Queue: 2 jobs
Job 1
Amino acid sequence: MNAVPLAPFALTVNTLSCLMSMTSPKFDNNGRRNYEGYQVLSISNASSQNGLFDIQGNVLQQLYSSDKLFNFMGEGPNKNGPTDVMICPEQANNVKSLLSAYDIPFTVKSANLQQNIASNVNENNKILAESQGTMNWNAYQRFSTIQSWMDSMASQYPQFVSVETYGSSTEKRPMRVMKISASGNDGSKPIVWLDGGIHAREWISAATVTYLANEIINHAKSGDDTDLINSVDWYVVPNMNPDGYEYTFTADRLWRKTRSKTSNRRCFGVDPNRNWDWKWGGKGTSNNPCEEIYRGPRAASEPEVSSSQKYIFSIKDRIQLFISFHSYSQLLFYPWAYDDVPADDKDDLEKVANLGAEALEAVYGTKYRVGTPPQILYAAAGGSYDWAKGVANIKFSFTFELRDTGDYGFLLPPKQIIPSGKETLAGVTAMVQSVMDYYRDN
Ligand code: 0X9
Ligand code: ZN
């Protein structure tokens, strides 16, 4: 990557970078991270067609990596849509004048991020209070509510729902999978794997995954005997990062990583989607524990990741379709993520993804782009679905980046859970069908 040429205005960057906000964030008296004065900018990529993206991308990358002026909301310059960045109060004016000096167009999406967080959290809390800890899809639910719901499904429908604990997190929360086998889990049928919540702040991911599981249970209850219910078993993990997820409710709505201790006593957590044991430490990862894309001290250092790897590996021969859910940007990725290299079976993967995106769009017109992360966003090594293909040898492995494209971003209003669930169910259904067709013919 080329360094950004040193222009005279670069000298105006003052020494107070956002590093302080990264290593010593401000918390309220009630222990909650406060984002007062943080801003979100949407940086246009209008010039991506004529090759200017690389220059802009380099400027952004340089501002980020050497000066720590901001954090990416989606973790890197985005080749597809605009790139959203979060800037700390100390540097808000500086970043804006630097962008203007480099002729990089941007809009201010949020002039005070704390306000957006407060309205998202207040709206959700109101609905949670009304439902008093019982599961529903009108609000984003706490970890314990999701877990109790899984247990209650298993006790109400023991003929086809069961729950297994396969590991435990750094803070000793259980890693649990819900298995839905309408025709009895006799160990013979192909498995569809769905996981959510690996990034803590991506609330819509866990919510959508539980929505899908609930719908599948409803179909099984009503005696639906389509292939989707009768010919596959569903293995669903709504919370791949339980500690991080709870931390977003109790302390920091925008927390992404796990909550393990690191070599830096001020900085916690590893990016669990950079920690899997396939091409670990490669592109799009960091060895700095204070960064959002910290890969951890070694592959599978996180108990959440190592237990998931072990569990998935033990059932890998039955998994025909593996899907991890993230947000946001409305994208559907097929491998590889670690580098811009085509998978040998790219055509098979692309076909399934395209059918999924089309079926999803048919519900409400929500558009998803299909491709690989290096083509659409950026390369990122050590992610779950690359591991599923590379190590566990699961041919059909995908990642969704769910709603939206940035209007609300991670702070997606709870009203969108059900619509997101409905359209995603249509997309996943089409993908399952297409994978089953593939194995029937091959
Ligand atoms: O950076 C990520 O991990 C994902 N984007 S997110 O904004 N949800 O953090 C992209 C995942 C791409 N896939 C893999 N690297 N496996
Ligand atoms: Zn994510």
Job 2
Amino acid sequence: MTSFPSDFARSLPKAELHVHLEGSVDPATMLALAQRHGVEAPANDVEGIREWLRFDGFPMFLDRYFFVCGLLRDGDDFARIAEDYLRATHRQGAVHVEFHVSSSYHIVEREADWSEILEGVIAGCERAESELGISSLLLPDISPHLGADAAHRALDVVLAHLHPRVTGIGLGGPADNWRTEDFGSAFQRARDAGLHTVSHAGEHGPAWEVRHAIEEFGAERIQHGIGAVGDPDVLSMLVEQGIACDVCPGSNVALAAVPSLEAHPLPAMLEAGVTVTLGSDDPPMFSTDLLTEYENAWNLAALDEEGLEQLATNSLVDSFAPVDRVEQWLS
Ligand code: ADE
Ligand code: ZN
């Protein structure tokens, strides 16, 4: 196999549509945030934090993810992490990023001031955009493990603070309660307010989650969606409805959603004709970044340069960025 053409991959204008803002915090920043807020850090140095970020599965990851969420206390914290991530991903050729933000956690669990958080994130996005030209939008996530009432409470607050950068809502966290609680009505409210809708599905769970996210939540894109390969009808649904999957191979390996990189179903998804974009999910938590995910895809699916270019193009076309900007990037 020819080696990964990293300069070529970097040079491709691309969007990252699947990254969690709170999961983008690097270990050094985690330590700085803990010190800033007088919180006992889980380790004394960056190496120790890296050790702490080794997971035996999804529940252990979520425990640490929410610890990091809890280190983010004020608008300045959010401005800093948004700007830092946009700078880092711009160096990899990203022209546009859509950040998932764990709104249920901040609004419902922590009862934090969402307007301050939002102002902070937007300030970070604006600083990066004015200096580097990188575009960014936000996807506040609701978390199903808190139940549908909590999803609606989080949504009340999100909808009360709409801003042009808030482009849609997502659903993330453990895929609990999907069949027993009505999250579809929350997605409907978001759509009625003019927002896009996306959902995690088929990450650790099977193909029915992907079908459910499309049929019940009206998801326009699926985060992960790798479980879809278990059901040809669900694969066809993705293809026929032109619903892209924002796939993160490094995350799937780190959280044991797949037994190994070699066993990842990305080739089968591409073979079936599913539109795929690549994301890094929670990059420092999985020792990855956007370009590494392009390298993972290159190795996994035996891509050529045209294949890399197609993935980058998909990420622009399937983004929620304004059409005129997408056309500029594509040209
Ligand atoms: N929130 C942050 N990372 C996530 C993941 N990999 N799956 C679902 N929710 C998440
Ligand atoms: Zn995710």
